[in-house]
Amino acid sequence: MKIAIPTRDGRRISSNIQSINGFNVYEIANGEIIAESYISRKSIERLEEEADQDNSIEKELSLVSAIWDCQIVISNGFGKLMFEELVKAQKEVYITEAVDSRIAINHFIRQTLKNHPELA
Questions:
Q1: Would you say 67 and 4 are in contact if contact means Cβ atoms under 8 Å apart?
Q2: Which H, E and C letters describe 8-36, residue by residue?
Q3: CA-CA distances (angstroms) from residue 63 to 18, 76, 82?
Q4: pLDDT in the model for residue 91
Q5: Residue closest to 87 by CA, chosen among 106, 105, 73
Q6: How many domains does the chain fold into?
Q7: Which residue stretches of the chain are H helix?
Q8: 103 with 13: CB under 8 angstroms?
Q9: Residue 14's domain is classified under what CATH number?
Q10: Regarding predicted confidence, which is higher, 77 or 56?
Q11: Residue 9 and residue 71 in contact, taking contact as beta carbons nearer than 8 Å
Q12: In the predicted model, what is the mean pLDDT of the chain?
């Protein structure tokens, strides 16, 4: 399974989807991280340009297409529209109080990540 975590600095989880620099992406199998990658905002912006989108809401939604192969998204919160779009795209969304993406992913693996959907 693949998990995407929005981030500004590559380490801390971001709740403001408009200000992220990209996503940390973790691939998990048998309770371990087997691969780790980063999808940069620049590559996401190329997708936006290809789609010729001017609307900021549409740009936010193109972020969903950038993580199309991730089943789970972990964040500190989203706007309602983005949360709904992720769910509509069949992503399982975790809203956590964790700040560090590596700590959050380790809690997820150990099944101790606390989900706060009310913060979405």
A1: yes
A2: CCCCEECCCHHHCCEEEEEEEECCEEEEE
A3: 10, 16, 9
A4: 92
A5: 73
A6: 1
A7: 41-51, 56-66, 80-88, 101-109
A8: no
A9: 3.30.420.130
A10: 77
A11: no
A12: 84
Instruction: Specify which residues 29 forms β-bridges with.
Output: 32
**Structure tokens belonging to residue 62:** 């193109």
* pLDDT computed for residue 85 by the predictor: 85
Which residue type, as a one-letter code, is found at position 107?
H
Q: Residue 80 — pLDDT band, cuts 50, 70, 90?
A: confident
Q: Which two tokens stand for residue 86?
A: 């992720």
- Which CA distances in Å does 30 have to 1, 2, 39, 91, 110? 10, 12, 24, 20, 11
Q: Which domain holds residue 36?
A: 2-119
Whether the CA torsion 85, 102, 32, 43 is positive or negative: it is positive
Assign 61 to helix, strand or coil. helix
Identify any residues that bridge with 22 across adjacent strands, giving them in sequence order: 7, 40
List, for residues 88-112, the tens digit of each pLDDT value: 889 999 999 999 999 999 999 999 9
> In terms of Cα–Cα distance, which of 23, 38, 112 is closest to 72?
23
Where is pLDDT greater, at 83 or 37?
Answer: 37
